[in-house]
Write a sequence for this structure.
């Protein structure tokens, strides 16, 4: 009887072992060759199905970009004395200067003429410090707010700390606000960055583009990453403008052009008046 | 009644024998047969995989150094604003490769090519197969090479194999290297160098004492669960810790990941996947390793192919043209293929944010002096494979996760990479004995 019990015990133990091994074989291992599996074509058709419109041509070509750095410094307040045409207020905390024209400055006529008048205004060093380094950006502007971004040898900077905003009301320049990062230099040699299409794809797969919207523009610029050892570090970013087809609201989002990660907390809305 | 008992006994015995034999068969199946698993891969879209693999390979297999002549002097070229290797890769994007053929063979001819001022040279740290560059096999031979010679002609360039002293010519369509030539002519940094033949390649020797910059980086390390999830998945993973400070996560018997416990200051991970496979060609090893490297999920921005040998393919971060060794002498990722397993040894420290150069430099002697000092210490000259300048990682206590990259000489000898100071602590007599035994066995 004891021998029979032992036989049953062995039978049950090995049966359990077999079941376990069988289960292990049945369970599939993770495949390291696995890719996203989504081809360009299928992503495009999925986006179309979600009501997302894309610009007619988005580049698939990889470009190169730099890590840039700017020395943290107060560049604006030393310029106060030369700003003879405007009354100024400097905020040390925000490193931001606000200028209000002492005399009436008109910005009348059609859009083109207005832009030329504003261009002349900001390029005059008695009005705006470092004005020539700022370039008009229509995507960030509205009817009453004309936005200019700081330009560098490496490309434009899209950041609140490198921006000039001229407020216009009833055909007159009301005031402007400027922040300036100072001279920009490359920290390391250029590196490969992702293509514009890769950036849009990354946003879509991360569900950052809502259904029923339109991608208006994809452009490359630099955004602030962090501050270290008294330097502001900038990295290349794809700036993607997305318009909601229903509300017509425009949202600006940024994608790290080195890693294809979405820069969290960097998106903002543009009000079109 | 009695016979029924006997039948029951026999059935029990047979059943026990059956489950016993079945368990052995299943065990052998798990340990040796990978056909079931490889079948899963076949269901993936092969074209997509190939495209993806080629895209990643294009970023990892980039020449890491460039050389040109000025007034008859060979120089290592460097420009902080124009990455010459990257420019070459960009110019290759629209190029069609037509044909590849052997142009010359022999040490004398090879050295004439090396020292010919009309060529710009771009080099990989070790040999790669031609199809890794061309993305397709142009001939059955699929030659291996380490350096590319760009002439003034856009219709072809040459590939050079240091080991066999062979030059191959590739005919091109739609190539234009004029920007690269212009960048090379106007490169800011030109360090005088010369080529010296070592064990099986031509090494770049710095002929003068040089001041090398110390760079700093903020680093980032993904946690263990990130790598467990990427390499093993999230379901059915079990963990087992041991007293030596390691935790092993297992998906099943044949797939596991060893990670350092958080209490330790280690960053070395080891992924092992047991699977039977046939011996791979060099080209297969190089390209297969790319998928594994990508799967780990480390930053690939500065990651480049670095070394190859004994079934392993190594990848390392390159900063301003120099490789960065982790933990004194380890590479960033080491992929090893054997007939029974695939192993990935990697370090999880990513060089995340570069810090502006603050003026710190280190002065290093000419390469020949370094080699002579090692030979004087007992290193066998015939065992010296590489002599390079590379970065050693040093913690900077002024800021969390801040590291400094210190330029020092690294030497590969006896098939091991070590810094010169590490070699200084080695007992060469033992290493020389082992290498003598190996070479005797080789004969």
């Amino acid at each position: 009887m004891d021998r029979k019990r032992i036989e049953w015990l062995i039978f049950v133990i090995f049966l359990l072992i077999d079941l376990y091994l069988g289960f292990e074989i049945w369970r599939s291992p993770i495949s390291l060759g696995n890719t996203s599996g989504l081809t360009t074509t299928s992503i495009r058709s999925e986006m179309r199905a979600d009501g997302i419109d894309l610009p007619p041509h988005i580049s698939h070509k990889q470009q190169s970009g730099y890590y840039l750095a700017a020395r943290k410094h107060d560049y604006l307040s030393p310029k106060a004395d030369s700003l003879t045409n405007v009354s100024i207020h400097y905020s040390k905390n925000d490193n931001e200067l606000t200028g209000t024209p002492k005399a009436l400055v008109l910005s009348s006529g059609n859009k083109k003429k207005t832009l030329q008048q504003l261009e002349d205004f900001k390029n005059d060093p008695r009005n705006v410090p470092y004005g020539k380094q700022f370039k008009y950006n229509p995507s960030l502007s509205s009817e009453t707010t004309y936005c200019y971004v700081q330009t560098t040898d490496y490309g434009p900077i899209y950041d609140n700390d490198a921006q000039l905003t001229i407020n216009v009301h009833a055909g007159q320049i009301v005031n402007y606000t400027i922040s300036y990062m100072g001279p920009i230099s490359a920290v390391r040699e250029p590196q490969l960055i992702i293509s514009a299409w890769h950036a849009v794809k990354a946003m879509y797969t991360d569900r950052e583009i809502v259904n029923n919207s339109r991608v208006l523009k994809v452009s490359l610029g630099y955004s602030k990453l962090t501050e270290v050892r008294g330097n502001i570090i900038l990295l290349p970013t794809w700036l993607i403008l997305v318009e909601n087809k229903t509300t017509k609201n425009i949202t600006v989002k940024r994608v790290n052009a080195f890693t294809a990660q979405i820069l969290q907390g960097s998106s903002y809305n543009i009000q079109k008046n | 009644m009695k016979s029924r008992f006997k039948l029951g006994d026999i059935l029990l015995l047979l059943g026990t024998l059956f489950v016993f034999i079945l368990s052995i068969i299943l065990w052998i199946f798990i340990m040796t047969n990978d056909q079931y698993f490889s079948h899963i891969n076949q269901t993936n879209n092969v074209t997509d995989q190939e495209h993806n693999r080629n895209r990643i390979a294009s970023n990892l297999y980039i020449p890491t150094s460039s050389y040109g002549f000025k007034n008859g002097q060979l120089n290592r070229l460097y420009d902080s604003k124009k990455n010459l290797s990257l420019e070459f890769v960009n110019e290759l994007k629209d190029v069609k490769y037509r044909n590849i053929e052997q142009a010359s063979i022999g040490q004398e001819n090879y050295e004439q090519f090396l020292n010919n001022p009309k060529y710009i040279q771009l080099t990989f740290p070790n040999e790669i197969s031609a199809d890794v560059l061309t993305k397709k096999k142009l001939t059955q031979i699929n030659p291996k090479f380490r350096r590319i010679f760009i002439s003034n002609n856009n219709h072809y360039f040459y590939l050079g194999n240091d080991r066999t002293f062979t030059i191959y010519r590739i005919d091109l369509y739609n190539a234009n290297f004029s920007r690269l030539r212009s960048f090379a002519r106007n490169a800011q940094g030109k360090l005088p160098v010369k080529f010296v033949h070592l064990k099986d390649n031509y090494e770049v020797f710095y002929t003068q004492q040089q001041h090398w910059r110390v760079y700093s980086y903020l680093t980032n390390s993904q946690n263990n669960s990130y790598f467990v999830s990427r390499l093993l998945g999230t379901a059915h993973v079990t963990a087992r810790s041991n007293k030596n400070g390691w935790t092993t996560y297992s998906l099943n018997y044949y797939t596991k990941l060893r990670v350092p416990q958080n209490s330790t200051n280690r960053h070395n991970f080891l992924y092992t996947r047991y699977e039977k496979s046939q011996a791979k060609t060099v080209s297969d090893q190089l390209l297969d390793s790319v998928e594994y490297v990508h799967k780990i999920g480390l930053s690939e921005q500065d990651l480049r192919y670095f070394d190859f040998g004994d079934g392993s393919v190594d990848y390392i971060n390159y900063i301003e043209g120099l490789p960065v060794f982790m933990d004194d002498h380890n590479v960033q990722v080491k992929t090893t293929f054997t007939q029974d397993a695939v192993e990935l040894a990697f370090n999880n420290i990513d060089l995340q944010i570069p810090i502006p150069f603050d003026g710190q430099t280190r002065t290093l002697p000419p390469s020949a002096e370094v080699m002579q000092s090692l030979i004087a210490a007992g290193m066998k000259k015939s065992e010296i494979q590489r002599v390079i300048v590379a970065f050693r990682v040093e913690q900077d206590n002024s800021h969390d996760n801040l590291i400094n990259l210190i330029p020092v000489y690294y030497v590969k000898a006896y098939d091991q990479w070590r810094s010169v100071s590490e070699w200084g602590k080695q007992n060469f007599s033992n290493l020389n004995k082992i290498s003598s035994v190996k070479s005797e066995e080789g004969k």
Remarks:
- The radius of gyration of chain B is 26 Å.
- Residues 34-44 of chain B have pLDDT under 50 and may be disordered.
- Chain B touches chain A through 62 residues (CB under 8 Å).
